[in-house]
Amino acid sequence: MGSIRIGLAILGLAVAAATGPAAAQKKYDPGASDKEIKVGHIGPYSGPASAYGRIGQAIKAYFDKVNADGGINGRKIAFITLDDGYNPARTVEQARKLVEQEEVLLLFQSLGTPSNSAIHKYMNQRKVPQLFVATGATKWGDPKNYPWTMGWQPSYQSEAKIYARHLLETKPDGKVAVLYQNDDYGKDYLEGFVAGLGEKAKTMIVARASYEVTDATIDSQMVTLKSSGADVFFNVTTPKFAAQAIKKAAELDWKPLHYLNSVSNSVASVMKPAGVEAGIGIISGFYIMDPTDPNFQKTKGFGAWSDWMDKYQPGGDKKDNFNVYGYTVAQTLEQVLKQCGDELTRANVMKQAASLDLTLPMLIDGINIKTGPADFYPIEGEELRRFDGASWASMGKVYGE
Amino acid sequence: MSSITNPAGAMPAAPDTEADAVTATAAPRRAWRAWAGVALLLLVLLLLPFLLKNYRVFQLTLVLVYAIAVLGLNLLTGYNGQISLGHGAFYALGAYIAAILMDRYAIPYWGTLPAAFLACLVLGFLMGFPALRLGGLHLALATFALAVAMPQMLKWKGIEHMTGGVQGIVLAKPEPPFDFSLFGVELGADRWLFMFTLGIAALMFWLAANLVRGRIGRALVAIRDHPIAASAMGINLAIFKSLTFGISAAYTGVAGALGGIAVAFVAPDSFPAFLSLSLLVGAVVGGLGTIWGAVFGAVFIQFVPNIAEGVSKSAPAAIYGICLIGLMYLAPTGVMGILRKVFERLRRR
Questions:
Q1: Per the CB < 8 Å rule, is A182 touching B54?
Q2: Taking CB atoms and an 8 Å cutoff, what residues of chain A touch B55?
Q3: What pTM does this model have?
Q4: Is pLDDT at A15 greater than 80 in this prediction?
Q5: For chain A, which domains are there?
Q6: CB nearest to A92's CB, from B55, B165, B263
Q7: Is the ipTM of this complex over 0.90?
Q8: Can you point out the beta strands (E) in chain B?
Q9: Domain map (residue ranges) of chain B
């Protein structure tokens, strides 16, 4: 009798020892459980920036694939996406809804510099990750003051500095006209460009014109810029206005050396609506593969992406690089959540996001994702490409790494 | 205010005392019941936040804010008959005044309310003068022009350094001045803000109720229904109408300030022309020419859009429109109209 009891006790202790530590390792913050991880997202599905709504759709399609393949560490992703119409007031509303009503684990890829600026303080006060925001404003990489916010794409200032460097190398006597959106995003690019030109900024930049994102067109600004006599054009606009600017420049018969910011170099959303002939010669920065480039179409990564598009976004446009962007950034979050394992706390999400070192199939060769506790800029490299009427052709060099 | 009562005092005194005499006996009994009802309501409202989650409390705070705004509009449109489609502009002004004072001049949040009240009182009064020349639809269009222009005026580069331009101003949420918890739930910023807004709302509702119950209220209604007769009886139309505009704007301005503090963010696109229309919708749905109607109107403005979004993701505005049309058919005198009918039927039994 006694030996059986002792045996049972030892068995019980063994079982407790086996399951005890494992059970203690599972830590959840609101939004995470054994079955699912709630990921919140805010994007402009309506309004002046609704072209970007496709990114949210692509991300959802990617998480559909992840869930179909079994989820992350056995947990399905519940992707909750809300529309803010690129209106910062609505972003505030939707962020509160996601954090306080839906109780998501983190806010992922919220889009827009003004939109994210409006919730920047709130997310950090609440200690909820504002992760991989869909904007390149330099201020997102500030772990000391805002440890819960992190960007993803190359910062606007570093991109503008690349354009400035290229300009100084190829056309040091050029006269520059700048068109920019009158908010933090536009001003960030402008600041980086001016810094990149250094002392020559004062003499080289001969005209500046800004517009409000709620304006209907930028035709009058384009006329003003052309009449300044500039032969270089730095185009800091979101897709809708970028297409207008390219079209108008062609109509005005203005053919400057044209630098287009990377947020608007989508063939489907910008170059086609503007008219592909009008876009020949435009230079832009790239970190993800342009799906219209025949060289990329030969790679294995493209094959996997194309299969995913066929299965999970059957009506989707394979020429639209927003589908590449959404795919790649979703893969980045997938990696972070994988690294979290069973400790799905918000603090651990940020910790893992700040310990990334990986390459992803749809990133341009030579560009990788690397973060550290003091480095909140995951992607820093960019390659310059020139539009040839059908796709963006590589100019050969990767800057910025 | 004494300069106002003089014109109103020109009304014959006899009917006043007769009416007062009739109600004098019934007054104490009715007054006791009314006060008890209000006290009970306040008690429930004080306990409610501790039973709800933060987000719901935040939504209820916005209901109170809209209630004050709609009450302001109701004083002008319901009691005085001047249609305003531009009260969203005063709401925006109040919000921006609060935000600029808090953000740039470090004035505490409660200190911004008198400033918003006074600024909107003066501006509303000044708007009242041109409004004297316009009647009905023309006034509606003129005020609508103000509502439509407001977001773009707020984006004007000349004042960008103060208003923050298109990106607006992000505010810090006010913390409660003392620690408190009930039923194990902490007071926190959201609940404290609810209590604060409740206090302000109670005060403003009480003031408005007193205003409309007395001679001034009767003068306002007289101006709405028979302006020529009212003027013949000695009511100074110009002063009354302008002052009503001013007070109405002041109420909505205070609501705007409270709203800005609650959301902790103001931006030009937070105050589109649709806000002005929403306030009018709230006033009509609640019941024009009533005080409590403002509360029901505010509940409609705050919750029906959310419900509509839950019903249909692609066409929430259509659902909102259907609800509104439905209410107009079933309750043309608003929720208060229906409640009045219900009470009368109960009283008859």
A1: no
A2: 96-97, 100-101
A3: 0.79
A4: no
A5: 36-154+297-380 (3.40.50.2300), 156-286 (3.40.50.2300)
A6: B263
A7: no
A8: 169-170, 181-182, 185-186, 265-266
A9: 2-16+37-272
